[in-house]
Write a structure and sequence with these properties.
Elements (H helix, E strand, L loop, with lengths): L3 H21 L14 E4 L9 E4 L4 E7 L2 E6 L2 E2 L7 E10 L7 H6 L1 H4 L17 E7 L2 E8 L10 E3 L3 E2 L2 H10 L5 E4 L1
Parallel strand pairs: 2-11, 5-9, 8-10
Antiparallel strand pairs: 1-4, 2-3, 3-4, 6-7, 6-11, 7-8
Length: 187
């Protein structure tokens, strides 16, 4: 018999060690607050195993791994009034995705986004970062994404145009764990 809490603490230490080293090397000596590092945590058993649950208020994304246990990641989320909530499915995934601002983004901030109206190819300077999970509801694109970021200091803040941002290393990890068809609940 094993103590579940001891297993969680032990696995969390294994997960945190390499992630902490990566986060510390980011431009401008950015160091991510430990609470936003990937870690296994107790989580209420109301969501199906394999589901992704985003808590925008507390800036966390949870991947439900077992009854009562989830892998927690820190996220940056949409500013008030831009955030989306509800249930969707991951309908598509992309490595180093291209990005085009939405018409609403261009309308809200033409000086900032107008120059990108034709799109930005995938790569390390792309705002969607290393990976993107595209959220659809009832077969239709919500235009909200779970994606990486070129601005790691925004994790833990309400700063985006509604999407869910993660460190590139963390979204790459999530990308490998989450198949197309996964349910995503944004509280």
């Amino acid at each position: 018999m094993f103590d579940r809490r001891s297993v969680i603490v032990g696995l969390t230490a294994v997960i945190l060690a390499p992630q902490a080293a990566l986060a510390a090397k980011v431009k401008n000596k950015f160091v991510l607050d430990v609470k936003f590092m990937p870690q296994l945590v107790d989580f209420p058993g109301v969501y199906a195993i394999g589901s992704v649950v985003v808590d925008p208020k507390n800036r966390f994304l949870y991947l439900v791994e077992a009854t009562g246990v989830a892998r927690r990641y820190g996220v940056g989320v949409g500013r008030a009034g831009l955030a989306w909530s509800g249930t969707a499915q991951v309908a598509r995934k992309a490595k180093w995705p291209s990005w085009t601002p939405t018409k609403n983004m261009i309308k809200r901030a033409p000086q900032k986004y107008g120059k990108y109206a034709g799109g930005v190819p995938g790569g390390p300077n792309n705002p969607l970062g290393a990976r993107a999970l595209y959220l659809y509801r009832n077969g239709r694109d919500t235009y909200y994404r779970i994606h990486g970021t070129t601005e790691p200091w925004t994790i833990g803040r309400a700063v985006s145009n509604g999407c869910i941002r993660m460190l590139n290393e963390h979204v790459a990890d999530l990308y490998e764990r989450v198949p197309v068809g996964t349910t995503v609940v944004v509280l």
